[in-house]
Specification:
single chain; 413 residues; alpha/beta; 9-stranded parallel β-sheet; 7-stranded antiparallel β-sheet; 7 helices; 21 strands; elongated
Length: 413
């Protein structure tokens, strides 16, 4: 049996001599076979991209097996001679099958075991586990499903209407490109993929349904890894306020949609550096963008207007603006000190209140969204620090900015 995996070889002699190891995980193949002259003796051959001749390990020389993380696709095989530890990472199902065969070889329960002779085991280029796949035609889809080792998957221009659910099994996937299709919905389970860092969904139909489900975008695992998302040309009318939970997002492209407003929480993404929202129907920008450290902002071809058509803050007393309620005071304290909260700790309504909080021009949280003004803002103002505004017709022009205030003092400023 052959197992396609990643293996890190650790020489224990180096560790005992305080020699720094340069070992790292390499794409590899482990082959389990038997010795031709002694059918009761079994070996493991380790082939890698830098060791195509392979290294042979006797099963009887195995000292210890560590399977605590087997359900995560990780095991370690420790050999007495040579003094090596093989740290293995592989797809869970294949790894479990390999370990069952290995257990049979160790215990001697090999009555119905069929393994190739060691001399007949070879390594070919096809044995190296594939990590990249490009599909430009429907006939190119693998009959047996996508290889579980894929890290890069490109499926472009096939007019797919439905998201392929076998993608949900690719736990090693880091880059997914489904551009130029007709996909209308992404399943919520997509948010569980642990390694997605770049997601390209341009020229699809994610916004065709006005009640679009964005739960996939807010999965706990994907929200920690996703750094780039391309949602251009998707007929999107609204982005979810919860998008701020993508706390490692660096690049957001949402050009050529039907957005009339950006979420006021967008500025809470402290890692956001590239934002492109050209060719939409935007009338205002949230003031939080001023404070989130953008290096590139494309707001060309929108419908910005300078007149203030929001409620005048002067119509309310300072007490209304600053104090509001005890719930808001407590919520502001939670947000200020970044206390952890979740639906299993506090009521869901309070979680929604905290998640949807706006940002004052000073950077503090604003829990009440009733009191705000829309003010004209010179583009040069957005160039404070590292902000760069590009592709705008007239740099002397102003844009309308939706401003929230946590206190009368901020409003005066």
């Amino acid at each position: 049996m052959k197992l396609h995996c990643e293996v890190e070889v650790i020489n224990r002699v180096h560790s005992s001599l305080n020699i720094r190891s340069n070992a790292k995980y390499l794409r590899s193949t482990l082959a389990l076979g038997k010795e031709p002259k002694n059918v009761q003796e079994y070996f493991i051959l380790h082939f890698s991209s830098v060791n195509k001749n392979g290294t042979k390990y006797k099963v009887k020389c195995m000292k210890q097996v560590f399977v605590k993380c087997l359900n995560e696709g990780k095991v370690t095989l420790r050999f007495e001679e040579p003094p090596h530890d093989l740290c293995i990472k592989s797809e869970v199902i294949q790894l479990k099958s390999f370990m069952r065969l290995l257990k049979s070889c160790i215990t001697g329960d090999t009555k119905d075991l069929k393994l190739s002779n060691l001399s007949s085991i070879g390594i070919t280029s096809k044995d190296i586990a594939p990590t990249k796949l490009t599909i430009n035609n429907r006939s190119e889809f693998p009959v047996k499903g996508f290889p579980r080792t894929l890290k890069f998957l490109y499926i472009n221009g096939l007019k797919l209407c439905n998201f392929r659910r076998d993608i949900l099994l690719l736990n090693h996937l880091t880059v997914l490109d489904l551009s130029n299709n007709e996909i209308e919905k992404i399943p919520p389970e997509f948010g569980r993929l642990p390694n997605i860092s770049e997601l390209y969904l341009s020229n699809n139909s994610l916004g065709l349904n006005k009640n679009s489900d964005w739960q996939w975008l807010l999965g706990l695992k994907i929200s920690k890894k996703l750094k780039l998302i391309d949602l251009r040309e998707n007929k999107i009318i609204n982005l979810p306020k919860d998008i701020w939970k993508l706390q490692n997002l660096v690049t957001l492209k949402i050009d050529k949609n039907s957005l009339y407003k950006l979420p006021t929480t967008l500025g809470r993404i402290t890692t956001l550096r590239y934002l492109s929202v050209s060719e939409n129907n935007l009338r205002t920008l949230p003031c939080s963008l001023i404070r989130c450290g953008l290096e590139h902002l494309d707001i060309s071809s929108n419908n910005f207007k300078s007149e203030a058509d929001a409620p005048k803050i002067a119509d309310y007393t300072p007490w209304d603006i600053y104090i509001n309620s005890l719930v808001h005071i407590a919520a502001k304290t939670v947000l200020k000190h970044k206390f952890f909260y979740a639906p299993n700790i506090i009521p869901k309504t309070l979680v929604e209140l905290l998640d949807n909080s706006n940002m004052c021009v000073c950077g503090q949280a604003v829990l009440n969204d009733k009191y705000y003004v829309i003010k004209p803002f010179e583009l040069i103002g957005f160039s404070i620090s590292r902000h760069i505004v590009s592709n705008f017709v007239n740099k002397g022009s102003s844009v309308s900015v939706e401003c929230f205030f946590c206190s009368p003092k901020c409003f005066v400023k």
